[in-house]
Amino acid sequence: MTDDDADARDQPVGSGDRVDGLRADGGETAAAGADDVTLDPWGSSTVADYRKLFEEFGIEEFDELLEGVPNPHYLMRRGVIFGHRDYEPVAKAMREGEPFAALSGFMPTGDPHIGHKLVFDEIIWHQQQGGDAYGLIADLEAHAARGLTWDEIDEHSRDYLLSLIALGFDPEDGTLYRQSENRELQDLAFELGAEANFSEFQAIYGFDGETDVSHMQSVVTQMADILYPQLEEPKPTVIPVGPDQDPHVRLARDLATRMRFFKVSKAYASFECDDAERELVAAAYAALADDLDEDEMVRCEDAADWLREHAPEPTGARESVAAKLDEAGMEPVRPRTRFFDRQATDDAFEALIDAVDGEKRVYEGHVDAFDLDRGEAEELARQVELDHGGYGFVAPSSIYHRFMTGLTGGKMSSSVPASHISLLDDPEDGYDKVKSATTGGRQSAEEQREKGGKADECPVYELYAYLLANDDDDFATEVYEECVGGERLCGDCKEQAATLMREFLEDHQEKRAEAEALLDDLDIELESSRKR
């Protein structure tokens, strides 16, 4: 979940229908050399088609919930933030004034650059919307996964924190920390490690017998980072990252669930079903209940017969649940909410039984409630867990932004100075890099005027959409439409962008200087006590 310099940067923002001229094009164009979708948090993978992330990894389209986000950030409006996992609880908390949090981490392997600014802005925006904001330095990861010395880490850590504060992060109302100096975090990582294993890491990250233990430990530490905002109280928490960090988010969501005392689900009989089986029983119940009088009940054996006659062609789920229904015989099929004992203490399980009001049935390993809906049951289970020393984690959410294209085309990388603009660059150097950048222009001015420019493939237009236009959608739209309409030529466009970049760097570095004293007063260790 860290934003580092192994960046795969492709897919500029193009046209669409939410903000004219600013919406993402769905990934139909790709940077030179882009390959198939691979999500490697430490690699240099590219995303050739962002739509594949929806199909292959279950990332949801952000556009579908944009209207429910109060005062959406311009990165959301323009489709730079293109996807999410379960962001609706965060948006709901914003709308209703409930607690929520945002956290992201930075691996200090080089200077912070304009690609990192996307994440800085996302954390700051969530803080401005009322969220608890967390920014962390992933120094343990940098040392374990990249082999940086602690002196190198110290130098870069200060630069990341200064830029974050200079861009608007309020350190008095937020939390900044280093992994190596946070004992609470390390204790949580230890507990989470008991729920993870090497086979899982092998499947998710491709770890093998050559992977060192410290690298694996750094993954567990990142899981603790993601859940850290919930140590004081469970709350919706969003992790803003690039899509290459999605493996971390998926694992953290799994671990949050495994740490819970109880699983809450719908059920229809005393036995346990998986999701596919439960769906079949629900269908049988709905069909049979319609034909019964009020004093009659659907029986398990009748549901089994109905499934064999009416369900789709035989499947493993149909056969397995029919066998379970046969075994239950005349037991009634009745909708209920189930509390399944995942890893509750004996005292917590007994307390749950006492806390369930109305009709209930107690079994070995689960409790069925007939008068509680799913939402009420979830809150009850979480409260009992918290009362008995559990964490009560809410599964963390995530939002995903498109990668920035390097100024030279292809990937933006800290190891290729001409491809990126560091937030520490001399403003004149930033000006020169933009002036030298690759564009989406035609071969000649005449052809550009006739056919229009290719803004969807232009790193310079991307600078406007991602950074230089700031919150001004009209300005970004104007640049786009003038480009594709042939009115704007690349020379003038680059001159304007270069001037704006110089002004941005001048302003940012003035604010960084002002942040120096503030950072020195914060309760964060800037020099590691670890051996070099």
Automatic annotation (TrEMBL):
<feature type="region of interest" description="Disordered">
    <location>
        <begin position="1"/>
        <end position="37"/>
    </location>
</feature>
<dbReference type="GO" id="GO:0004830">
    <property type="term" value="F:tryptophan-tRNA ligase activity"/>
</dbReference>
<dbReference type="InterPro" id="IPR002305">
    <property type="entry name" value="aa-tRNA-synth_Ic"/>
</dbReference>
<keyword id="KW-0648">Protein biosynthesis</keyword>
<comment type="similarity">
    <text>Belongs to the class-I aminoacyl-tRNA synthetase family.</text>
</comment>
<dbReference type="Pfam" id="PF00579">
    <property type="entry name" value="tRNA-synt_1b"/>
</dbReference>
<feature type="short sequence motif" description="'KMSKS' region">
    <location>
        <begin position="411"/>
        <end position="415"/>
    </location>
</feature>
<protein>
    <recommendedName>
        <fullName>Tryptophan--tRNA ligase</fullName>
        <ecNumber>6.1.1.2</ecNumber>
    </recommendedName>
</protein>
<keyword id="KW-0436">Ligase</keyword>
<dbReference type="GO" id="GO:0005524">
    <property type="term" value="F:ATP binding"/>
</dbReference>
<keyword id="KW-0963">Cytoplasm</keyword>
<feature type="coiled-coil region">
    <location>
        <begin position="501"/>
        <end position="532"/>
    </location>
</feature>
<dbReference type="GO" id="GO:0005737">
    <property type="term" value="C:cytoplasm"/>
</dbReference>
<keyword id="KW-0030">Aminoacyl-tRNA synthetase</keyword>
<dbReference type="InterPro" id="IPR014729">
    <property type="entry name" value="Rossmann-like_a/b/a_fold"/>
</dbReference>
<feature type="compositionally biased region" description="Basic and acidic residues">
    <location>
        <begin position="444"/>
        <end position="454"/>
    </location>
</feature>
<feature type="compositionally biased region" description="Low complexity">
    <location>
        <begin position="27"/>
        <end position="36"/>
    </location>
</feature>
<keyword id="KW-0067">ATP-binding</keyword>
<dbReference type="InterPro" id="IPR020653">
    <property type="entry name" value="Tryptophan-tRNA-ligase_arc"/>
</dbReference>
<dbReference type="InterPro" id="IPR002306">
    <property type="entry name" value="Trp-tRNA-ligase"/>
</dbReference>
<feature type="compositionally biased region" description="Basic and acidic residues">
    <location>
        <begin position="17"/>
        <end position="26"/>
    </location>
</feature>
<keyword id="KW-0547">Nucleotide-binding</keyword>
<dbReference type="GO" id="GO:0006436">
    <property type="term" value="P:tryptophanyl-tRNA aminoacylation"/>
</dbReference>
<comment type="function">
    <text>Catalyzes the attachment of tryptophan to tRNA(Trp).</text>
</comment>
<keyword id="KW-0175">Coiled coil</keyword>
<feature type="short sequence motif" description="'HIGH' region">
    <location>
        <begin position="108"/>
        <end position="116"/>
    </location>
</feature>
<feature type="region of interest" description="Disordered">
    <location>
        <begin position="423"/>
        <end position="454"/>
    </location>
</feature>
